[in-house]
Amino acid sequence: MNMSKTPSKCPLKMPIERLALIGVGMIGGSFVWSLKRAGLVHHVVGVDIDLDELEGAIELGIIDSKSTLEGLFDIDAIVLATPVGAMQSIFSALKSMPFVDTALITDVGSTKQSVIEAARQGLGYLPERFVPAHPVAGREHIGIHHAEEMMFYGHRAILTPHENNSDEAVAMVKSLWQACGSTVDTMTAKNHDKILAATSHLPHILAYGLMESLTTTQYEEPIFDYAAGGFKSFTRTASSNPVMWRDVCLNNKADILYWLEKYQQTLSQLYALIDNADDEAILDIFERSKRERDQHFVT
Fold it and tell me: Could you give the CA distance from residue 119 to residue 129 in angstroms, rounded to a whole number?
């Protein structure tokens, strides 16, 4: 049953007249840029604490004007693209805004249960037009100048509707991601967080961890001078936004720790097999791993 503060009255309309992008960076910037290219948004208002990012977004044509949270007005849609740790304070700031119940609201955060809870705590309820979302795509770079109009083309986007969502709002957010060229899946926030902890959060943590281990170990030779493609591919995501990934760790702790424990068990197994020179068992693991990766990712 819909339990939002006030029922929506006006139907959602496309194209969107005024969209507020809160958090003007690579992911959010790429999303609204793609929507503008598709003719689905007329005017984008950027909100960010980094004035250089705002100016860069205006120069690129990604946003049309800039504002503070408190200065927003006549907003028809909101895209939250900040680190997930900032979401609750943003929802709290939006609570008194007259458009919070009529605007379509979505986000691009990497954790979904925490974002839904941030909305519940910040607003005091879950608006029927707030549809949590997560594009399963991106780059390891930081900032608006790395935004790409076609970043999400051919990639998945995941929607995690909550119990108060209207079908109309979910359908509209789905159509926005489809306009970006994404394949849209729908699942529960709980399932999202468990799956993405394995396929996204864990690999980022491993990349950061390997760089930390090698950086803090003393060697006589400059080891990074001898790093080739494999090392660079494995550690690529360690160049991602540290604040964003700190917040992901803190906001999906249980699922991340579950997969970290599983990985530690595998490392311990490999350690023992190498220590015991168990060539057949090592080969068995490597062949099974190659077979699985080739099946899923090699065409």
Answer: 12
> Could you tell me the maximum CA-CA distance found in the chain, to the nearest angstrom?
70
Q: What integer is the mean pLDDT of 214-223?
A: 87
Structure-token match 């119990």, residue found = 163
Query: Are the CB atoms for 69 and 190 separated by under 8 Å?
Result: no
Query: pTM score, two decimals?
Result: 0.91
Domain 192-297 has CATH 1.10.3660.10: yes
Residue-wise pLDDT tens digits, 38-71: 999 999 999 999 999 999 999 999 999 999 999 9
DSSP 144: G
Contact 26, 48 (CB under 8 A): no
Count the neighbouring beta carbons within 10 Å of the beta carbon of residue 280: 7
- Determine the Cα–Cα distance for residues 177 and 156; give it in Å rounded to an integer: 9
Domain segments of the chain as ranges: 16-187, 192-297
Question: Using one digit for the tens of pLDDT, what is the confidence trace for 124-178?
Answer: 999 999 999 999 998 888 999 999 999 999 999 999 999 999 999 999 999 999 9
**Can you tell me the distance from the alpha carbon of 8 to that of 272, in angstroms, rounded to the nearest whole number?**
61
Class of domain 16-187: alpha beta
Q: Give CB contacts under 8 A, 24+ apart, made by 202-207.
A: 202/256, 202/259, 202/260, 202/263, 203/237, 204/237, 204/238, 204/240, 204/245, 204/248, 205/245, 205/249, 205/256, 205/260, 206/234, 206/263, 207/234, 207/235, 207/236, 207/237, 207/238
